[in-house]
Amino acid sequence: DRTRMVRDGVEAAVRFDLGGYRDLSAAVFLDEWLIPVASPEFLARHPPITQPDDLRGEWLLHDGSAWDGADTYEEWQHWFAQRKATPPPWAGGQQFNLSQLALGAALAGQGIAMGRAALVLQDVKAGRLVPLLGPCVPSRAAYSFVTTTHPSPVMQLVRDWLADEAARFCQQRKQTLPAPTE
Question: Is the pTM above the cut of 0.90?
Answer without folding.
Answer: yes
